[in-house]
Amino acid sequence: MPEKQPSPHLPSDLPTGIELLHNPILNQGTAFTEAERQLLGLCGLLPPRVNTQEIQAQRVVTNFRKKPNDLEKYIYLIDLEDRNENLFYRVVMDNIEEMMPIIYTPTVGQACVEYSHIFRRPRGLYISANDRGNIDRCLQNWPYEDVRMIVVTDGERILGLGDLGAAGMGIPVGKLSLYTACAGIHPATTLPITLDVGTNNEELLNDPQYIGLQQKRVTGDAYDELIEEFVTEVHKCFPRAVIQFEDFANHNAFRLLKEYRDRICTFNDDIQGTASVTLAGLYASLRLTGGKLKDHRFLFLGAGEAGIGIADLIVSAMKEEGVSAKKGREKCWFVDSRGLVVNSRRDLAEHKLPYAHEHEQMATLLEAVQALKPTAIIGVSGQPQTFTQEVVEEMAHLNERPIVFALSNPTSKAECTAEQAYTWTKGQAIFASGSPFDPVTYDGRTYVPGQGNNSYIFPGVGLGVITVASRRVTDSMFMAAAKALSQQVTEEDLELGRIYPPLTKIRAVSANIAAAVAEVAYSEGLTDEPRPYNMLAHVKDLMYHPDYISFV
Ligand code: NAD
Question: Residue 269: how many CA atoms within 13 Å on its side-chain side?
Fold first, then answer.
């Protein structure tokens, strides 16, 4: 039985007895040793046999695999997280490929749809429009003082599922679990928050079990004032916290990012994290196609948060290659639900305008591909099967190694499947998808599709920012993160067609990203922390491990 780690600092107000067993951060259940049971008032409260964490983990994994469906698996894991966080992270980290799709996309989407019906125990903070003027009191009720990472949603655009109101809480909860599992950010420093401003989802409003405010969404000045109070109070209560805005609708996401990115330490993962993971995939693709980013022409299907965010970062990355922003934007084209984004259109939202080029309208994506001759098509439309056989074959006709990224989540929304991409291009496609696809064998060769999911990026970025207490999160950090991620792709990965490293390496990947991000904080003068001698070693030292500590 491996020894428990001696704790460097035990809390002075360590709870005992049943209170200890009900504390998910400290609870070890049957792994409390005889000596700990004597000391901590646990005698009689546990079955007599002491288990190792390893045995406990075996029990969890066996039960997990017996669950009849993914939603039941989700409920089982969240219950474990509520009882014993170390054990939860032990099993998630040791089985990341199997469990990540359960605690995060795609299953978390289904969990959010069902959230009010599977609700057991609150997790995180619910701040509603009725708390206006009192948000500080809600924040002060949070039991942990040293909050470093906040994920907040207003539930208006949960994944591709739309307005789920307060039931969107599954997303901040799931995302923060990944910050811990993938990058070792201590769970006690993370805080999921839902800003419940109502919902316009009639089904939820008519559901007696719905957990959120039973009213239409607050909008306009009242909405903005609530956000402003929230941001201000968070800054007062948790001055070292990063605020990650998550799954806000387009009309708020872009303007909130613009409003706050230079005022507080914040970022929007849907826009910037997605951009970074896609840029990483492109950098890795360049190792297969040769050439530079500026040699490519990108055609996006979907001009929302993901698409515009990716294009903006590609333009920044091209600037590093000596291309002006104007010329860079000219290499990025968009098709949205109403056709090609061109400057003659009068229906374009503000965020699309920089990419509205001079061109005649095209009726279909295929026509756009034929006319614009892109080297890469990037699907971020949430519309399944929109990369048709004709479109993908045309890409293969135009390019020796066409880049085909079908990034829409969940799997059922992907613009095309991995099998289609490889088959229709006779194995030439450099393919990535948002949700995982199984390996594909085509013409005797096996291809392992890369998963271009932002979970490769945001945990490492968060860790880097926290490690050096950076005052801001900048685009250069996302660019550095993209480079660091692409550098973790080995020649063997590329040989298999994989442009992202396997998820099993995610902690090492996140540590490298964090070190790169922290370096940017120093070079941009955003931190006052003393510079460590070896940044990567420093980052690794700070990472949380789910091993039990000894209380005696
Ligand atoms: P969004 O709502 O902001 O944007 C969607 C865009 O798609 C809009 O511009 C819309 O006009 C366009 N669109 C809708 N129907 C279309 C059609 N038939 N043809 C062309 N365009 C159409 O959403 P978003 O945040 O940009 O996300 C879009 C998709 O990308 C989602 O499915 C999401 O799951 C996925 N995504 C994946 C990742 C990842 O890590 N892989 C990250 C973020 C988003």
Answer: 28
